[in-house]
Design brief:
Layout: H1 2-23, H2 33-54, H3 58-69, H4 81-105, H5 107-117, H6 132-149, H7 153-170, H8 178-184, H9 191-195, H10 202-205, H11 215-219, H12 230-233, H13 249-254
Length: 261
């Protein structure tokens, strides 16, 4: 039932963000939704299918194991339940920030992660555009972090819900008043903040790595407030992949394994 509930919540947030995009879009999209959504959702479905048969439930399983054996940093001393929960979520979010930044710095990780950046437009479905191998590596990394930090299953479940919901939100093409956006991004990563990260300009691509909590980018000097060309005129994607034929499903699945790219 846990998996069904999580999927239902994910779909609910997805539908809400799609409706918001249709009612109040931030930017005009330049490419076919049908073509992009088919690829993005297709990649997500394939990743989910592979995960289900290969390493399904590994994060929760690791959390259950460390809870039973009292392992991990947070279990060195006895903490109030609320503090364990908050620290667990914050430390896991920091770990994901580190993973994301490493995915841009280390060439072998970038070969996988660039699939996410080849989307030619930026909307809620961009949030699920990841190569299946990157998804599997991410789950292995996350499981290792859970083991080291020492978080309980309920914290892992809450974090996964927060992470997926925030990813759908901050990848959305939704219009938010500037004053509201300015206030929100003091805590959360907003769509305007994360859109900068999907710019074709290298300095902007290598910025704003946060997925949920916005403080990490300011703390580790990777924050850019606004894109140089403005949100309406900035080009989305990677400069070497600006044609639809370069980013279809077969091309994206093979992309990390091609030489010289």
């Amino acid at each position: 039932m846990e998996g069904i509930e999580r999927l239902s919540l994910f779909i609910a947030v997805l539908v809400i963000m799609i409706a918001w995009e249709l009612i109040a879009p931030r930017r005009q999209l330049h490419h076919s939704r049908w073509q992009r959504w088919t690829v993005n959702i297709g990649l997500s479905f394939l990743s989910t299918l592979i995960m289900r048969f290969v390493i399904a439930g590994s994060a929760i399983a690791v959390a259950s194991y460390i809870t039973e054996h009292n392992l991990g940093v947070l279990n060195v001393v006895e903490l109030p339940t609320w503090l364990h929960f908050v620290l667990g979520v914050v430390l896991l979010d920091l770990a994901i920030y580190g993973q994301h930044r490493a995915s841009h710095r280390w060439a072998w990780l970038w070969r996988l992660h660039k699939v996410h950046h080849t989307d030619l437009d930026f909307d809620v479905t961009t949030a699920v555009r990841f190569h299946p191998v990157e998804i599997m590596l991410s789950m292995c990394y996350k499981s290792l972090c859970i083991l080291i930090i020492g978080v309980e299953p309920v914290v892992v479940l809450a974090f996964e819900i927060i992470l997926s919901s925030c990813a759908l939100f901050n990848h959305s093409n939704v219009k938010i008043p500037l004053a509201v956006d300015k206030g929100l991004r003091l805590i959360l990563v907003t769509p305007d903040m994360h859109r900068v990260h999907h710019s074709t300009l290298q300095t902007e691509t290598d910025s704003n790595y946060g997925f949920s909590i916005s403080i990490w980018d300011r703390l580790f000097a990777s924050y850019i407030d606004q894109p140089q060309q403005g949100h309406d005129k900035m080009t989305i994607g990677l400069s070497q992949y600006q044609h639809v034929t370069d980013v279809n499903m077969p091309q994206l699945l093979l992309m990390p394994f091609k030489r010289g790219i």
